[in-house]
Sequence to fold (388 residues):
Amino acid sequence: MDEIIYLDNAATSWPKPDSVYEFALNFYRRTGVNPGRSGFDKAIEAGNILEDLRKRLNRFFGNDEEAWSRVCFGYNATDALNLIIRGLLKPGDHVIATNLEHNSVIRPVNHAVRDQGVEATYVPFNDAGFIEPEAIRQALRPNTRLVVCTHGSNVLGTVQPIGKIGAVCREAGVPFVVDTAQTAGVIPINMREMNVDALAFTGHKSLMGFTGIGGLVVRGHLDICQTRSGGTGVRSAYPYHLEEYPFRMEYGTPNLVGVASLWAGQDWIEQQGMDNIYQHEMRLTRKLVTGLWEIERVKVYACSDLDHHLSTVTINVEGIEAGDVGIMLDVDHNIAVRTGLHCAPLAHQQIGTDKVHGGVRFAVGAFNTEADIDAAIKAVGEIAARKR
Fold:
């Protein structure tokens, strides 16, 4: 069988750069011990890469220079968002989220509403797929204690005006949290300039790291309450979880091979140039969208203007279930895409695709080629030409 055409990079980037595989494996073979728990050389070396990566990601996300210890590692963006949302909301608080959110935001917020007596407002997006800052302003209440918003939609691919939304939040004195799962590594993020108080990131998408590594970055003026406790390898006689960062938000042994993969991913992004990666992906995305628009019976969502957009495109073929389109792309054309609701049910409800079991999502990545896009357009054309 021919090699798969992988167009599911919004789920996870694949393949990774060879340099990421090589560095992470070699580092783990050589230094795969528990960092910060012992004083021998390899433990110190493992601890050094952990500390150096905190400083590196702190600069990458534009956080306050002295706040590098507030880069805290976890499993992924979902893990980080749970820590942030649960750690900032109390009974009687009001939180604002949006209809573009992933379940990594929706479910923790809904649990806070059901289990803690928190109030929540979900702000809809406009016809082009963007959250309007004024809509956030209008949703504010006296008891609003948190605004959380995705930076890039994993359904529509639209990149939200985070800086403007952050300005609204800063004016109101409300903490602003951003989910960067879809954007970190392809869209520049500067927490200071965008008035972002905390963000969640995942390593396995455009940061080019492995699965199982991610975390949160917190500005120096914001403190998040602890909702977990356990081992840190530091001050073991103290009977409670440590309050200082990064230990405040970290629990147990870190994912050292994941940390190594993130380090190598940063190297690769710097070598390639983040804007070059983005421009490559968007050039192919424009080709894909142009081809899909020309196919009869194909509906393309929120792609009439690809400015402020990611390389994520969702479609449906009239008269054919999204899941069936995905199966045909896989079985007949060896093309991997994602179908369904994409863990973002409110977005699909607003565009009406929940009634047809979601959509078919193409997500172009750094290693895709024009030949991949040509094959995808041809395959969709053949599927749409079938009799209903």
